[in-house]
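User: My advisor asked me to double-check a structure prediction for DUF4283 domain-containing protein before group meeting. I don't want to rely on an old file, so could you generate it fresh from this sequence?
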Amino acid sequence: MEPVEGLMERLKLSAAEKKCIRIGASTSARARLVDPQAIRKVLAEKLVNADGLTQALGRIWCPIKGGMCKHLGENHFLFTFLQASGKRRALEDDPWMFGKDLPVMVDFDEAKSIEEMEFKVIPI
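Assistant: Sure, here is a fresh prediction for DUF4283 domain-containing protein from the sequence you gave:
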């Protein structure tokens, strides 16, 4: 069986096919540039439901388009704001309460792991 590199060297694309090929950032990387993201940790003894958190706070931050929330484990959530103003509001207009629990939000930095992020500042 021939290695993939050898097969790729023999590949010839037509002009129409070449127009459809993009080399560079992946679709998900481009989506992150368009949709602002932040990480939120809920300081609670019990596990928090991502859907409940999105319902309670997502519509406050992004009333027109809403947002998405992905559970990352241990009450950590990745929020994708479908309005840029939503991220600014979520980060700057703290503190937000979720029931009786305090959520702390930091700007998403894909270069850091969750363990490296510091959830210790709440603007009041």
